[in-house]
Amino acid sequence: MNRLIGKSVPRLEDPALLVGKGRYVDDIHLSDMLHCTFVRSTMAHAAITGFDAEFARSMPGVHAVLTASDLAPMLMSKRMPLSAAPSKEENSSTPFVLQDREVSYVGEPVALVIADSRAEAEDAASAVQVEYEPLPVVVDARKAYEPGAEVVRSELKSNLLNKLHVGYGEVDEAFAAAAHVFADDIWQHRGCGHSIETRGVVVESRFGGSELCIWSSTQMPHDLFYMLVAMLDMDENRLRVITPDVGGGFGPKYCIYPEEIAIPAAARLLNRNLKWIEDRREYFMAAVQERDQYWTLEIAVDADARILGLRGRLVHDQGAYAPKAVNLPYNSATAMTGPYIVPAYGMDVLIVHTNKVPVSSVRGAGYPQAAFAMERMMDLIAVRMDLDRAEVRRRNLIPPEKMPYVKQLKARSGVAMIYDSGDYIASQAETLAAAGWEDFPARQKAALAEGRYIGIGLANAVKGTGRGPFESGTVRVSQNGKISVFTGATAMGQGLATALAQICAEELSVTPEDVTVIAGDTAVTPLGLGGFASRQLVTAGSSVHLAAKSVAAKAIKAASRLMEVDEDALKLEEGRVWIRDGNRSLGLGELAQVLRGAPGFAFPADLEPGLSTSIQWKTDALTYANACHIAEVEVDIDLGEVTVARYVAFHDSGRLINPMIVEGQVVGGIAHGIGNALFEFMGYDETAQPVTTTFQEYLLVTATELPNFETIYRETPSGLNPIGAKGIGEAGTIPAAAAVVSAVENALSPFRIRISQTPILPERLFNLIQAARATT
Amino acid sequence: MRTHLIEMKVNGKACSGEAVARTTLADFLRHTLHLTGTHVGCEHGVCGACTVLVDGVSTRGCLMLAVQANGARVETVEGLASAEGVLHPLQQAFRDQHGLQCGFCTPGMLITLKELLAENPDPTEDEVRDAISGNICRCTGYQSIVAAALQAAKELRRSGSAP
Amino acid sequence: MKPPPFEYFCPTGLNEAVELLAAHENSKVLAGGQSLMAMLNLRYLFPDVLVDINRIDELAGIAVASGAARIGAMTRQRVIETNGEIARVAPIFREALKLVGHRQTRNRGTIGGSLCHLDPAAELATLALLHDAVVEIAGRDGGRRRLGIHDFIAGFMMPNIEMHEIVVAIEVPLWSAGHGYAFHEFARRHGDFAIASAACLLEKDGGGAISRISIALGGVGSVPQRLSAAEEFLLGKRGEPGNLASALEFCAGLELIGDFHGSAEYRLSVVRSMLRKSLELALARAGRRDT
Description:
The complex is a heterotrimer.
Chain A: H1 14-18, E1 34-40, E2 46-52, H2 54-57, E3 62-66, H3 68-71, E4 102-103, E5 109-115, H4 118-127, E6 129-134, E7 160-168, H5 171-176, E8 180-192, E9 200-206, E10 211-216, H6 221-232, E11 239-242, H7 258-270, E12 274-277, H8 280-286, E13 289-301, E14 307-319, H9 328-335, E15 345-353, H10 367-385, H11 389-396, E16 405-410, E17 416-419, H12 424-435, H13 440-449, E18 453-465, E19 470-477, E20 483-487, H14 496-508, E21 515-519, H15 536-563, E22 570-573, E23 576-579, E24 585-587, H16 588-595, E25 612-618, E26 623-636, E27 641-652, H17 659-678, E28 709-713, H18 736-747, E29 757-758, H19 762-775
Parallel strand pairs in A: 1-12, 8-29, 10-11, 14-15, 20-21, 27-28
Antiparallel strand pairs in A: 1-5, 2-4, 2-6, 3-5, 7-15, 8-13, 9-10, 9-12, 13-14, 16-17, 18-26, 19-20, 19-25, 22-23, 23-24, 26-27
Helix pairs in contact in A: 6-7, 9-10, 10-11, 10-18, 14-15, 17-18
Chain B: E1 3-10, E2 13-20, H1 25-32, E3 51-54, E4 57-60, E5 73-75, H2 89-96, H3 106-119, H4 125-131, H5 143-159
Parallel strand pairs in B: 1-5
Antiparallel strand pairs in B: 1-2, 3-4, 3-5
Helix pairs in contact in B: 2-5
Chain C: E1 7-9, H1 14-23, E2 27-30, H2 36-41, E3 49-52, E4 62-65, E5 68-72, H3 77-82, H4 84-89, H5 92-97, H6 103-108, H7 111-117, H8 123-130, E6 134-138, E7 144-148, H9 149-152, E8 153-155, E9 158-159, E10 166-173, E11 180-186, E12 196-204, E13 210-218, E14 225-226, H10 228-234, H11 241-249, H12 264-285
Parallel strand pairs in C: 1-3, 2-3
Antiparallel strand pairs in C: 4-5, 5-10, 6-7, 6-10, 8-9, 11-12, 12-13, 13-14
Protein name (chain B): Aerobic-type carbon monoxide dehydrogenase small subunit (CoxS/CutS family)
Keywords (chain B): 2Fe-2S, Iron, Iron-sulfur, Metal-binding, Oxidoreductase
Pfam family, one (chain B): Fer2
């Protein structure tokens, strides 16, 4: 049928957002609401030796200055649990709700100030006297994991949070048999999420603090709900977490933060409605970042440039705490081989604490680093063996006949990693053709004759999407015919509501406008996982698809009983069940009215009450999307300035539900990746003081720095879910930095420069060019 | 602290409220007048989410005190659509071209582009990019916003109406 | 973050404003506010009193007379950028102003505010230096003083102005019709403070030789700087490639500062590149003039 699937249906979210009627967390105004701010550590590592808030408490408008001990009676633990499923296990890696003894990064929350206005709260916060006794600071992860190194927190014996080995095959043999071995050290830095809306929490306290309603700008309302149940020891029926409109997530809102526990705890303690809206400087110092990974790599190839083995070491800067089970370096290490056949692989992963802001996901979550490292090695092979970079990749790409391709690695859930579908060779070929890869050398030569340095680069990527274990989807028809979809998936601006409404409306033969999607409200959706890992369309979409199908079947069945005709003689059209050869019909609303039952009236035999179905579609497997990006750049060698002149992106994310939304995800993701390659850098000085804490210092890419992106789509349906979809939220970002840097290196090929880092900021590039000029 | 009585015409309507001097125009609109369509993204004048028109020219709402706008004519995103709820051509174009995702930067983008189209009814793509270079969007990669601006410009030229 | 508390005054007369500043020890002038407000929001500054000079009408306006343009201190950057008279007599202003921040900040930001903030990369301060502008300053009891821009620029972000004084206007001496001009800068993104900028004005004689030249460079040191040695060197020359290359060498004598956004060596390379572009463009734009 496909009236709606595959159509660029205008978004249901837009009308409200366009006229200023969105409802973001800071738009929520409660009566008698007080405003919060945090006193945060100004030192990267120090013992707290004194705390004096007496004067601050006396300041105008101030209601309270709360410390860890003030909140302790409200909390089951002073420390955040490792996951929302609390365990009795001691952990020494998660943050504290408030820190009262030893701070270990600049920005760590030490006290909570509550006042009539945010401004007054800030006045008081700056008047709180905290005495710090400096302790040794750990800045560089590479120097921090060795025994004897100073520790990030005194409670640690070592900064090495974890050490893993990821690999398979006979690695040493592969290297021994190799025609060539190429090695490189790669450093990469990803920066921060920087949704334009920061984080924020509003808490309504009812009945003396015995009931709380919490609005949080989070990707994980259910996680927060479970965490609050555990931390505040509250009955589930006394607690509700709602995500209002969210002004972007990009990963950092995946964590549950100390602030999201401290504000509700304080609301209970004071029995007051509270609001905390993070400011941008706080975001720089308290929202998780993805930061540095240092890779030491060797790749073994045969005489035809076919990969025999890949090995190395990955040092991952984890920052001061691990707010969640650490997944990024594991993602990086397991994603490293990407779309290529790597017969033997071994990676030692060291996860190391430093006195910097804690690290967790930013769009791509370890995959961009893996793609960057792998694609840099592919270019290295090509340059050293004097082969075309695309040809080296082609020889090593997993061919379509090997699909499904079982990687000899396991996902974090323990299941095997299986690339389910996709034609990587055709994908690359199509991208090369679109980008004019073959003709480029001639254009490059002509430009060089004019003194212009232009270059082209490519990168492939594979992304495991649709992470389970499940996502909830309930479809319910009310007696007035209105259809509601409830899901634990969380809308952060992607257009989730529109896509789910399309899927639902397709099955119920209504328009998307007939469907209301309620995402991320724990009071109406008992189960939910949330927004992360390019998962929501795959998981929630599948649940909603199945639930809507079931509701359609229920409607047909009920109509069959009520109209006394065979089910086969009925069809669902325009929200009504019709007799095929007649003009009698029953509306979905009428059927819902019957199925809701009425006291004293018989219920139709063999029908289930309620015109609604809840499905928790489960999956262990990831479905793998693939991408190929080609960037064209020009480099000004006097400035080290890179201009992205053209960009072609190929994506296969399975069946596209709403191509317009997919396009938005892809091009927005590329912009983020270009930012990672050329602009974004979160700097710390040698005392681990952050030095980029405003948007004037930390540069987000703007409209004048980007070209128009050209996109190509191929739809290889996923066989792993009922809608054939694969995720798209992160796929645009993953290969982008690798493609851009490949192009920059290509532009500078006259200087024979090797670029082993991202971001490649102008001055760094300038220095590389200068060094090369000095030796040539 | 002394409060100031602040009166301004917002989207054609006389509004007033009391605020201490340090209240920014953006906060006054949002929290005193409860016009929450104008957003605050950085409070240091870079992101552009708080852009409003003050006496006809685009202004960072976080870099102006509310008291400075006393007596001024202020236009915000809430004033763009018609009283009957018909979307402004810019708003319609943003919807058609998928010029917004999370919607947080959108009010500032719309207001900035309204000013551009008022003085340059037929901008080039580069002129649109230049105009919105002070507005950061983390979602769209800007290209759909540029497309929306060009569509709206065309529509406004066709209909002959003022932006 | 929200600004710290302060008292706010909004005088309509210049004398009243000066008296308010004089009467309050920890007071600050609020001009366009495009730097000051951000610094207040970030709580980098804690003034007790703000004196808003936006409603002092006499401070805004542009008057072009023969030989000089007088630009009121509170003239918005956008107004200067779009002013037809300025575009005619000093077209470099429009070229440079397009690079100052963004439309929204230029709508409120003022020339006087920019000069008093005195960021080393500020385009308007660099232009003032390029033109040997004169700054007119109001003091107590109706007092006025005029200060050459070289004296006005006292040091890093430090104008030579008393706490109670207010800049009234900037007088920009004009160059002859048909003079060559160019302003180039390199910023990480459009509208950012420049890593380095180079501004150039020049006039040619009937034979095509450079008869008058001014070069000012921004962003490289603690303050905008004139490259007088290069100016002297280029006088009488025609801008031959070899001479231009030699002129760039004088950049080595600049005061250079390195910071997070660029080391001294890097800024030097950038400023040379900008200067080369500006010299070439200014030479190409300059009409010959019979003397």
